[in-house]
Every structure is written in C-alpha cells, then in structure tokens.
Specification:
heterodimer, A: mainly alpha, B: mainly alpha, 2 domains
Chain lengths: 238, 123
Amino acid sequence: MTALPEIWSYLSREPLLWLTATLVAYLIGDQLSQRAGRNPLVNPVLVAMVLLGGLLWVTKTPYQTYFAGAQFVHFMLGPATVSLALPLYVNRAQIRRALLPMVAALLAGSVTAIVSALWIARVLGIEGPVWLSLAPKSTTAPVAIGIAEQLGGLPTLTAALVILTGIIGAVIVTPLMRLMHIRDWRARGFAVGVAAHGIGTARAFQVNDTAGAFAGIGMGLNALLTAILAPYVVSLML
Amino acid sequence: MILAVAILLICQLLGETLARGLGLPVPGPVLGMALLLLGCLMLPGMAARVMPTAQGLLSHLSLLFVPAGVGVISHLDVLGGSGPALLLVLVISTALALIAGVLTFVAVARLTGNADATEEPRG
C-alpha cells in the first residue's frame, strides 16, 4: 500500500485534484446561495474563493499549482463571453428599442466608475502606480490589465481590483436597486454590466434573463469605452 | 454540442485574430460575441444550434470566475498597506457607478418613451 503523504504529493501535482476541488467548491457555494434564496451576500464565487483560498493556505499549495488544474475552468471564460451573443440575439428587438438609454447609461456609468475611483482614492491619500491601477477597475480583466500597463499601473494589483469590484458589484446591486425602487430589469442589468463586468453579469443572469442580456452588452461596451476614456481622464486628473 | 462548442471557439479565434491584428482595445472574446451575433442574424439556424450549449455555459458563468478569484485571495498582499482604503474606494465607486448608470438608463428610457418595457404583460 502507498502511504498517504505519497498519494498526496502525487495528486497535488496533477490537474485532477484542483479541477475537482474548484467544481466542488463552486457547487457548495451555489447550494448555499440557493438555500439562502439567492441572497446576494451569499455569492457563489465569493464562497468558493474563500473555501479554496483556505484550502490552499492549509495545504501550503502555491497558486501556480492550483491554477494548473483550475485553468480548464478559467479557459471557458472565453467561449462563455462569446455565448453572450445568444441572449443578445433573443432580446434583439428589446435591445434595439433601448439603444438611447443604453448609450446614455454607458457614458454615465463608465465615467462615474473611473472618476469616482480616482477621486476618492486621492482623497484617501492613494498615489502613484496604485492610484493608476484603479482607473480601469470596472472593465473585464484582460482589458483592464492592458489599460493599467499603458497608464503605468500595476497589472497584478489591477487584476485583484477588477475581481474585487466584480464581487462588490454582484453583492450590492440587488439591495441597492431595491432601495432605489428600480424595477426595470434592462436598467438594472445594464448598470451592473458596466460597473461590475462579468461577475456582475453572472449575478444578473441569476436574477433575471433580460437583466443578464443587458448586463452582457454593458460589459462589452464598457470594455471599449474605458480603453478610450481612462487615459484621457487620468491625464486630466494628474 | 460539439458543433456548438466549435462555433463558439471559431468565433473566439476570429475575435482574437481581429483584435490582435488590428490592435483594437477590445478583448478577443468580446469581438467573438459580436461575430456570433452577426452569424445568428445572417444564418437563421445558427442560434438554435448554439443555444443549449450557450445557456449551459451562461447559467454557470459564476463558476468560471472562481480560479481568478482564488488568485486574489491568495495574493491579497498585493493590495499592500493601502488594502482597507482600496476596498473603501471600490465599494463607494462601484455603488456610485451603479446608481449613475441605472438612473440615467431609467431617465432616458422615460424621455424616449420606452420605459419599463419588461413590466408589460407578457403573451
């Protein structure tokens, strides 16, 4: 019989273990989220992140080892983004009618996301490359990292800020919209796609299909707009 | 299902090629989304073919962010000494962006006469 530490040292190097762990952690998060009646505070990504982060810490597993397994899940982000075309296609008539509100909300949401982050950070005494890394925080990670590099920010920090922004957006959007008595699913979805990219879009799909479709467009359009606006806004605020 | 996955990957591949080739500031998959939408508009059978797979992927979109999220948890030190301040910035700024976006959408929808279409009775 092979000793347990040997089995562990074999498994911990193989993608199988961490791929399985990722799916199981997500299933636990999703179950908890369902049991909590999709309460936004019990966000499945957040639950899975904390469970797996704890597991990596306890087993002293480096993130690179974990990612060798989890990359198969991560890879599916690309095809999933392409899939967003389907809800767009199904809701195309509704989207065409909402073209003007979308353009206006895109401008308002995108500019507010960039300017408010930079302004509040300055008030709190954040400066230099860390300050610059905040500018693209509401856009999807690959675009945000590209923008941060161009501005002189820190790519790794930007990636972390982007993910955290997504989770914060996904957690606060439902209570915030209830508080404001906004019942228009198009508006709710679009705003969360602009402010909190894919993680906000995932939350929107949990709540309502129309909201999900509009969130997907919001995310795509804001990736484009932030790439154009961020360097300009930063140069104005320097 | 394999056909659907192939269509999704082909769109992504074309998107990546276009984005890199033309130096566009948009990620390849987002361009791929636009290409697939064009495809669905031009070829009537396309949407029905891809739909089940796309719905399967989108209903578990959250799962796909877990690996990157674990990266943040295990690299929380990149936030450095300004961690709490940065979190405060993210919470306030995200809330403000949501409020600005949603209020603008609702106001312009009302002005252009298509408010609350989702609340119309269905059927």
